[in-house]
Amino acid sequence: METIFSEKHRLRNSKTELFGGELVEPFERPSRAEYIIDRVRAVNLGPVSEPDDFGMDPILAIHDKGFIDFLLTAWTDWQAEGFKGEAMPTVWPARRMSTHIPNHIEGRLGYYALACETTISDGTWEAAYAAAQVALTGAERVSAGAPAAFALCRPPGHHAAIDMYGGYCFVNNAAVAAQHLLDKGAKRIAVLDVDFHHGNGTQDIFDARDDVLFVSLHGDPMDAFPHFLGHADETGTGKGESFTINYPLPPNTDFATWRAALAKALVHIKDYAPDALIVSLGVDTFETDPISFFKLQSEDFSTYGADIAGLGLPTLFVMEGGYDIEEIGINTVNVLQGFEQAN
Ligand code: OKP
Ligand code: ZN
Predict the structure, then answer these.
(1) According to the 3-state scheme, what is the secondary structure of 172-196?
(2) Ligand 1 neighbourhood includes 230 CB (under 6 angstroms)
(3) Which string of DSSP letters, residue by residue, matches 93-126?
(4) What's the CA gap between 74 and 335, in Å, rounded?
(5) What's the complex ipTM?
(6) pLDDT per position in the chain (343 positions), as tens?
(7) Which residue among 55, 101, 198, 286 is buried most deeply as judged by most CB within 10 Å?
(8) Which residues of 110-137 are buried (b: 16+ CB within 10 A; e: fewer)?
């Protein structure tokens, strides 16, 4: 399987994350992608290619222009205020408040953020843009007939919505790729999100649409980030009714339970008969992930890669989370090899 990868991911190198009331080194750090690409090369998964540049149009096909303009200038606007740390919101349009978009950068950060752990700093936009191009290039390969491709995106994307960033995500790479496949002639795309966290951004983007089926397995939002989306009773709205399917799972979920939910998810995807599948691939379901609570072991990733291959669909894997950095390469590539060896 071909991997698409850009060294520009390194430009996303913020120094701080607000975690447990402290500013810590971000869990979402450059070494994550380095461990993954090293493993891709060590096992000879396949060629590693640079992304092509599809420009801003495919990003703006998913995201609000005002939001993207905000991301483009957030860091310089923040610095212009003379602030010493990295850009982080501290105020939100909470219940019964105004939704006017403020002028001041502190107001705009709160308007466009869904959470405050994710700081914006020098190079954030450039890396997020490159990650979207990685996903688009992967989509292009699948559209051209490749049975599978791996878009090694960093920063991740599934928490980013039409006009919201947070949860380490800025541009929704999987959603941009899904739209690109549709624009290239696909009639229906399924997104299977196996990251530990609910893909609230992807769900929200396609909530009212019937041309993208969104199916997610994740930590129950009653107990896990992003806390405010991902319940089983969210099934899509309007034309999109029944095209959102969530499997929230409790703390300490083991592989047998997780795999049973995956089997149900795969039946729904098969019934939908999509032209292609996008897997939002987070490996933070691993037993020793520092911010998650599922109990998958390394060999389980190979097993479920093969389960997904059973669909027999052209498949684009888009990298999302995974924070046990020493193991992230093994677990990620296990999914990809499990998929390929089953085919
Ligand atoms: C991004 B992705 C835990 C707080 C979690 C943000 C997590 C973002 C995960 N106490 N904060 O889905 O892997
Ligand atoms: Zn995650």
Answers:
(1) CHHHHHHHHHHHCCCCCEEEEECCC
(2) no
(3) --TT---PPPSSHHHHHHHHBS-SSB-B-TTHHH
(4) 36
(5) 0.97
(6) 999 999 999 999 999 999 999 999 999 999 999 999 999 999 999 999 999 999 999 999 999 999 999 999 999 999 999 999 999 999 999 999 998 999 999 999 999 999 999 999 999 999 999 999 999 999 999 999 999 999 999 999 999 999 999 999 999 999 999 999 999 999 999 999 999 999 999 999 999 999 999 999 999 999 999 999 999 999 999 999 999 999 999 999 999 999 999 999 999 999 999 999 999 999 999 999 999 999 999 999 999 999 999 999 999 999 999 999 999 999 999 999 999 999 6
(7) 198
(8) bbbbbbbbbbbbebbbebbbbbbbbbbb
Query: What domains are defined for the chain?
Result: 2-63+123-342 (3.40.800.20)
Confidence at residue 343, expressed as pLDDT on a 0 to 100 scale: 65
What is the rounded CA–CA span in Å between residue 312 and residue 322? 26
User: Parallel, antiparallel, or unpaired: how do β-strands 22-24 and 48-49 relate?
Assistant: unpaired
Q: Which residues surround ligand 2, an ion (CB under 5 A)?
A: 195-197, 282, 284, 321
The four Cα atoms 323, 325, 330, 334 give a dihedral, to 10 degrees, of 10
From 63, 158, 159, 197, active-site residue:
159
Active site residue 227: no
Residue type, 198: H
- Residue 43: how many other CB atoms lie within 10 Å: 14
Ligand 1 atom nearest 199 alpha carbon: 12
What's the burial of 40, exposed, middle or buried (CB within 10 Å: 0-12/13-18/19+)?
buried
Nearest CA to ligand 1 atom 13: 321
What does the alpha-carbon distance between residue 64 and residue 71 come to, in Å, rounded to a whole number? 11
Q: Which ligand 1 atom sits closest to the C-alpha of 284?
A: 13
Question: Under 8 Å CB-to-CB from 280, ≥6 apart: which residues?
Answer: 157, 158, 174, 191, 192, 193, 194, 195, 199, 202, 216, 318, 320
| Contacting residues for 111 by C-beta, under 8 A, at least 6 apart | 92, 93, 99, 101, 102
